[in-house]
Amino acid sequence: MSSDSSSAVTTEILGKDTINVGYDLTNSITAGILQYLTSSTYVLITDTNLAPLYLPTFESSFNKNAPQYSPEARLLSHTIPPGEYSKSRTTKAAVEDWILSEKCTCDTVVIALGVVPTMLLAMVDSLIGWKAVIGLPHGKNLIGAFWQPERVFIDMKFLETLPEREFINGMAEVVKTTAIGDEPEFSRLEQNAELIPETVKAKSSDSGRGQIGNVQNVFKDVILGSLRVKAYVVSPDERKGGLRNLLNFGHSIGHGNEVIIFPKMLHGERVATGMIKEAELARLLGVCKLGAVARLSKCLTSYGLPTSLEDKHVKKLTGGKHCEVERMLVIMGVHKKNDGRKKKVVLLAAISRTHEKKASVVNDDSIRVILSLSLIVHSQRSAVPELQVTPPSSKSISNRVLLYIDMTVAMMTAFGIEVTKSTTDEYTYHIPQSSYKNPAEYVVESDAGSTTYPLAIVTMTGSTVTALNIGKTSLQGDARFAEDVLRPIGCTVEQSDYSTTVRGPPRGQLKPLPHVDMERMIDAFLTASVLAAVTNGSERTSITSIVNQRVKECNRIAAMVHKLGKFGITAGELEDDIWIQGIDYNSLKTPEGGVHCYDDHRVAMSFSVLALIAPESNVARRNILFYRGNCRPCHGIPQHGQNQAYACGEYGRCLESSQIWPDCIPCDYLLVDTTDSNGVATVAFGKTQLPISQDQGRALELYIAALTMGLESIDLEITWPRVTSSKGYSKIIASHNDVGGDLPWCNAFWISKFNSTLKYGQAKSIQDNYDLQNFRKCAVTYETRMAVLNIGEKGKISRILNSFLTPVTHPGLPFKAAQGQLSIAEILQALSLIGMLQAKMFYIFRTPIPHSRSPALHNTLFPFPWLAIYLPPVESTDVSTTQEILNSDDFGGASVTIPHKVSIIPLLSSISAQAQVIGAVNTVIPVIAEDGTRKLVGDNFDWCGIQNSPRIGGVTEQENPSAATALIIGTGGTSLAVVYALHKIGYGKIDVVNSTPENLKSLVESFSKENNLVAINSFAEAKSMDLKPITAVSTVPADKPVDDALKVILQKLPTRGASAKVLAEIAYKPRVTEVMNSAEGAGWKVVPGLEALAGQGVGQFKVFFTGGIVPDYGVARAAVPGE
To answer: DSSP assignment, residue 508?
Structure first.
């Protein structure tokens, strides 16, 4: 921004020539302020984005002009955080305190870079009618005052440093004002829908004069046109009575969206979607002309603005966040223009005209219809006798639709259904009721549209290619591309019924196509266009019947014309057609800045074909990561050993345990998962070969590698290279570290960074933690989870109160990774001390009460009495006496033993799947359901310990269940869980022996025949068994002698053999039982009952305390006997 001024245009507002519009007005601005607004002190308020760009130049110009107009004047400047968050009570108070601290008096002139507007949004919206307002948690712009500025300067040169998205954001207000009040200006916007966006995208010319300066009159006219409408509305209605409310067109619904999805979308983007919804509401109410919504939508789209929350760009910004209808209605209910409880919406009648000269009252049901994604249509009990409607005009059914019908009919015929076309009614088909029959073979054709790209490549390069599964019998329209486009353009084409071979002419010998009708192969017109671009000859290529390509992912006809121009190719568009004047491929220009493809895959693919012969082309990719299906070793990658896993294949899901290398990832940045002999990851997991340090280039390479490998989570510093547009299925943990403590929590500096998640600040006082908590309350309303922390010793409170991704230390570490880090135990204890974590009570329900080791086991694993307190066992023969305990708020869980494992089930809300199979529970835990209600859930972890014991003895998963037999000795209280555990290991047959035949029969009958339980009642039955058990589990009570009859049977079953055999004991007192001695004498390996107790205790502990984290088994095992 230089001090050379150019002429400005003045616009009147409220009877005064207040607004000055021009280009490069810095000198005029400072001179005008000093001349007409005399003061001893001038205060310039700006934000941290604008200050580096414009403050030095403004200060220089001010100091240059001050001696002439006000020699004694001083200029002060103050910066605030950028964005909507600065419109807050906190920022307002901070600015007031600063002004008073500088001893400013009543004559002080405040200059806002905003009153000197730097954004298009400010130039056409906020500077007129000047509402000085702040936002509150309950809504936007709810408190403030109206106060007109003395002077407003609009310098269009500011727009040249404005990011493209911010310019588009401001265009929403331009479209809005012309849509409600100026047909000629709206038409001007439509006419310049190509020039303005292209100018904004372009870089400054070599002369240093920005592109906007070259066409400043166009931009000036657009800005002035919008200002005139707003001035017309505001002048007679300065304080927002009725007429001024028209300026809220799009805002009622747009502000509702804003509260829910801010800050992901900008203000103008939200208003654009709001305008379409409110225009659709006007159509629903019958007050808006049919074409107005379509015209409005097209204009917004042409300037890059979204028209729906379902737009791809919007869904990418918001993560697909849904604006729930009822919540929207509540938010709209507190809009400032409402009349009490009556919601008011500006209803568009036509372009440049509203239904009323004010916002109209609209009922909630009508708004619901517009906001809802779906509707429920009820049957009509009384029909209207006669109704006349005028449907929108439409072409007849196109050849393309008929083509799809023909393809469907042909497929149905191949599967035995003969569809016939009506001889009397056009577009009518008769489908017989019949059954599909599978043909001996059915070949699914290749996609003809995708085939056009390799065919076009050989056409340009003079090569040959054969496309299989696509030939002259194909009904796909794009299958005609070879014959109707490539043969006339100069290729040799050979087509069989099921293949197409194309041989391109020598480079530079393509012929133009005077005319080709592409209605039946309409998606291929883009491919044909880039071929036509390099044809030789004076004739143009004309492609017709492609009108619907204007309403695809983008306006494809316009896109081809514009982007071909970047290669030096002349092309033009008609309503339904495109024409291209080809040039020699050696004359193609290098497209400066690449080719923007509008997130349209066909635009990207087509220009990728042209890029093959264009000099140094750079086609902008469409944010797609391509993955190779087959990975091969990459040259130069060092060998790291045999036990490595590399993410490769699609989205990194294909993992091999040997040397598999993704061939497209730089070897220096592969993430290595080194495993031990058991396949367990060691501490080397996630190791990188090169440190990043502060090298952002290497960081970008590493980020891209991580994304290509499809890693689940990636920590991304938000000031480093952005790669989120290509993140695929990876989750981004966005972080920012304010190591110097430059961003205080008490104002909007941090909120301007809040675009995702993880944040650190340097705590300089305890107050910083309280300020951080206020920030957290504001930011927590958004769906993105985040961690907000202060580092340093004074920041410990913030770590204690943080509830997501809190970095912790451990007493065993030699040092802390950051100042103020706490261990998990310290954080939990602190939460308990300040009343934010309630200790839970745990119980044992059993009768009679033996000496249980469960409390010792759990207290050893989790020795924090401020979190879990084990109370003395509860002894009662009546399980209903536990009801009061189960319903208490501090109930954390209970271990249930005999005789209550079955009788407690009616007291519970539900039981787990394994507890249902076993028919008993040994664990009760309280859970909070999705609806917020408290539920008691029963589970059974006996089977975990039972399954654990054989595995300790060396038993592995059985590969052939039908050939694997296990033995259960006794029918004690855990026998049901034993059956479940043995089936989980893979035993297809389970023999059961017991001294009491009645109990034995009851156990066998409690399971279905598929469980294959066999009762062994005698020595003879045991002797006659063909398949002897290789694993046994004893459930015989240790305090009772083994029955003589049972001893006889056992003498036959546990025989010696070549294969290893294991007996697992369930009883743990005494440590060596009679059954264990018997099995050991027969050569079996025995596992004592302490292992089963420790295993089930570990299972219980996971659900009691840690939410699935597995505790150390060795520690648990040592705690059981009190070792």
So the answer is: T
* Cα of 236 vs its chain's centroid, Å: 47
CATH 3.40.50.720 at 957-1087, yes or no: yes
Cβ–Cβ < 8 Å for 276, 348:
no
- In angstroms, the CA 152 to CA 12 distance is 11
Nearest Cα residue to 109 out of 196, 29, 9, 176: 29
Interacting residues of 772 by C-beta distance below 8 A, sequence separation 6+ = 745, 761, 788, 789, 790, 798
Residue with tokens 């927002």: 240
Nearest Cα residue to 1111 out of 1119, 1101, 1122, 1096:
1101
- Percentage of the chain lying above the pLDDT 90 cut: 15
- Domain 163-334 has what CATH class? mainly alpha
CB of 296 closer than 8 Å to CB of 348:
yes
CA atoms within 13 A on the CB side of 808: 16
Tracing tokens 């509401």 back to the chain, one arrives at: 281
Amino acid at 390: T
DSSP class of 270: H
Helix then strand then coil, in percent of the chain rounded to 5, is: 40, 15, 45
CATH 3.65.10.10 in the chain, residues? Answer: 387-394+444-627
HEC readout, 694-751: CCHHHHHHHHHHHHHCCCCEEEEECCCCCCHHHCCCCEEEEEEEECCCCCCCCCCHHH
CATH code, 1-162:
3.40.50.1970
Identify any residues that bridge with 465 across adjacent strands, giving them in sequence order: 502
Structure tokens that stand for 533 in this block: 């671009």
- Give Cα 213 distance to the centre of its chain: 40
Q: Specify which residues 350 forms β-bridges with.
A: 353
CATH (residue range 711-834): 3.20.20.70
Say if CB 156 and CB 162 are below 8 A apart: no
Q: Where in the chain do CATH 3.40.50.10860 domains reside?
A: 840-939+1111-1115
Coil, strand or helix: which one is 910? strand
Question: What is the rounded distance in angstroms from the CA atom of residue 160 to the CA atom of residue 156?
Answer: 8
CA pair distance 106, 638, nearest whole angstrom: 73
Distance CA 266, CA 778 (A): 18
Nearest to 676 by CA among 666, 667, 684: 684
- Are 335 and 343 within 8 A, CB to CB? yes
Q: How far is CA 173 from the centre of its chain?
A: 29
Farthest CA pair distance, the chain? 123
- At residue 909, the 3 state secondary structure works out as coil
Alpha carbon distance 969, 975 (integer Å): 9
Instruction: Say which residue, 765 or 281, is predicted with more confidence.
Output: 281
Euclidean distance between CA atoms 694 and 487, whole angstroms: 56
Report which of 1041, 989, 995, 1042 is spatially closest to residue 1018, judged by C-alpha positions. 995
Under 8 Å between Cβ of 1094 and 1116:
yes
Per the structure block, which two tokens stand in for 633? 């070793």
State pLDDT tens for residues 585-638.
888 888 887 788 887 888 988 988 888 887 654 444 332 222 222 223 333 333
pLDDT, tens digit (0-9, with 9 covering 90-100), for 885-940: 999 988 888 888 878 888 999 999 999 988 888 888 989 999 888 888 899 999 98
CATH 2.40.70.10 fits 840-939+1111-1115, yes or no: no
Rg (CA), the chain: 39
Question: The whole model's pTM is what?
Answer: 0.46
Bridge partners of 935?
927
Directed axis angle between helix 290-302 and helix 267-284, to 10°? Answer: 170
- Determine the Cα–Cα distance for residues 771 and 787; give it in Å rounded to an integer: 15
Alpha-carbon gap, residue 36 to 51, rounded angstroms? 24
Q: Under a CB-based contact definition with an 8 Å cutoff, are residues 32 and 153 in contact? A: yes
